[in-house]
Design goal:
By secondary structure, the protein is an alpha+beta fold. The protein has four domains: 88 residues, Rossmann fold; 56 residues, Dna Ligase, domain 1, CATH 3.30.1490.20; 129 residues, D-amino Acid Aminotransferase, Chain A, domain 1 (2-Layer Sandwich), CATH 3.30.470; 97 residues, Phosphoribosylglycinamide synthetase, C-terminal domain (Glycinamide Ribonucleotide Synthetase, Chain A, domain 4). The chain is built from 14 helices and 22 strands. Strands 3-2-1-4-5 form a five-stranded parallel beta sheet, sandwiched between helices. Strand 16 and strand 17 form a beta hairpin. Bound molecules: adenosine monophosphate and glycine (GLY). The site of glycine has 6 residues, from loops.
């Protein structure tokens, strides 16, 4: 079977890498892909991003299944379009993707269905937003309603910062339409975890748990990023916590969507905040896998991903039992100089060590180019993600950082502490 993976990041490289390991997969196309997917003999990049042109390509090439990585094509209705043309695709419809594409939709949904989350209110009026902040005090969290590539959230520690965020989003239109409405919510303290499941419209299949590292610098300092590394499993999600999250968050979400007339298919990612008393609450939903969470999760998945995807599009996920590598996987992101504000492109990347059973490096912002046309160069903020596997967090870190230390490019940034919360447990 031929497969199409839509996207160009580390998440998509990891999904394509895993799909290509299936004996029944003849070819994996990645649209548009990156330097790593261009380099891999089992993967083929296709330079198409228009959704109709992608559907045409899938028909022409007789591609049997499409898997979507990022939120933008999902919010743009790629699943609706492909299904209307009779093409098999795994992902949520545009309507279901509102859980991610509108924070106001997600918050109202959670409130309506009793799903634990932070107290909130939605505003489009600047004066009312300022008054709400004065009434509630800091710390407080301000979120652009629409998609803002992970940059639309301000965790304001002071009133001044909170008021500035409101002005940026509502008065100065910093995020355009995405910030024309904002959600202001209660600050939640605790430890975060990424809880990702697959849904086929009836059945829910949880993937291995993971934990992201959002801040740029070690010890969770510096600005928020798209994610500087992730590891799996996340020990804070004990078996009891897992059962509770399924019971209180995941199952009510799928059931609530159905009650609202929306069948949820695709990956559902609940970003959790678990407080000191062990109560999980939902910070956000994503309708896709996480990046970089996918990289360590795929490195641990032992089950054939094609067969899982086939069950997912055929509504038979209840027949799947996932097998995971018992080792911990630690994924370290290597980012460009200037990331996240102003990533510098063009640096030439040194040779990348070959994959071993203990470590694999996935590409994100890379392309083949440079002086020879065949050099690997930096084209985006998050450049690579090296995943190491080991019997403990410490051993997995050692495997990952051994490889990281052999890679270099001008201005390369990476955290040295990915997995640190796992060391404490
Ligand atoms: P989001 O894009 O909604 O996941 O928000 C990005 C990051 O902001 C999250 O991963 C958290 O670290 C932080 N965050 C979001 N909402 C809250 C909240 N209510 N309380 C504390 N931190 C939050
Ligand atoms: N790593 C967080 C996300 O993918 O949204």
């Amino acid at each position: 079977m031929k497969i199409l993976v839509v996207g160009s990041g580390g998440r998509e490289h990891a999904l394509a890498w895993k799909l290509a390991q299936s004996e029944r997969v003849q070819m994996v196309y990645v649209a548009p892909g990156n330097g790593g997917t261009a380099h891999d003999a089992r993967l083929v990049n296709v330079n198409i991003t228009d959704l109709h042109a992608l559907a045409d390509f899938v028909e022409q090439e007789h591609i049997g299944l499409t898997v979507v990585g990022p939120e933008t094509p999902l919010a743009g209705g790629i699943v609706n379009l492909f299904r209307s043309r009779g093409l098999k695709i795994f992902g949520p419809t545009k309507e279901a993707a509102q859980l991610e594409s509108s924070k106001d939709f997600a918050k109202a949904f959670m409130q309506r269905h009793g799903i634990p989350t932070a107290k909130y209110q939605t505003f489009s009026d600047v004066a009312q937003a300022h008054a709400y902040i004065d009434a509630n005090g800091a710390p407080i969290v301000i979120k652009a309603d629409g998609l803002a590539a992970g940059k639309g959230v301000v965790v304001a520690l002071s009133l001044e910062e909170a008021h500035r965020a409101v002005d940026d989003m509502l008065a100065d239109n910093r995020f355009g339409d995405a910030g024309a409405r904002i959600v202001i919510e209660e600050f939640l303290a605790g430890e975060e975890a990424s809880f990702i499941v697959m849904c086929d419209g009836k059945n829910v299949l949880p993937l291995a748990t993971s934990q992201d590292h959002k801040r740029l610098k070690d010890h969770d300092q510096g600005p928020n990023t798209g994610g500087m590394g992730a590891y799996s499993p996340a020990p804070i999600v004990t078996p009891a916590m897992h059962a509770r999250v399924m019971r209180e968050i995941i199952n009510p979400t799928i059931a609530g969507m159905a009650r609202d007339g929306i069948v949820f298919t695709g990956f559902l990612y609940a970003g959790l905040m678990i407080d000191a008393d062990g109560n999980p609450r939902t910070l956000e939903f994503n309708c896709r896998m996480g990046d970089p969470e996918t990289q360590p999760i795929m490195a641990r998945l032992k089950t054939d991903l094609l067969s899982v995807m086939e069950h997912a599009v055929n509504g038979t996920l209840n027949q799947v039992e996932l097998q995971w590598d018992r080792r911990t996987a630690v994924g370290v992101v290597l980012a460009a100089a200037g990331y996240p504000d102003a990533p510098v492109k063009g640096a030439v990347i040194s040779a990348i060590p070959a994959e071993t059973p203990e470590a694999v490096t996935f590409h994100a912002g890379t392309a083949l180019g440079g002086e020879t046309g065949n050099q690997l160069v930096v084209t985006g903020g998050r450049v690579l993600c090296t995943v190491g596997l080991g019997d403990s967090v410490k051993l997995a870190q050692r495997q990952a950082y051994d490889v990281v230390d052999q890679i270099s490019f001008d201005g390369m940034q990476c955290r040295r502490d990915i997995g640190w919360r796992g060391l404490k447990h």
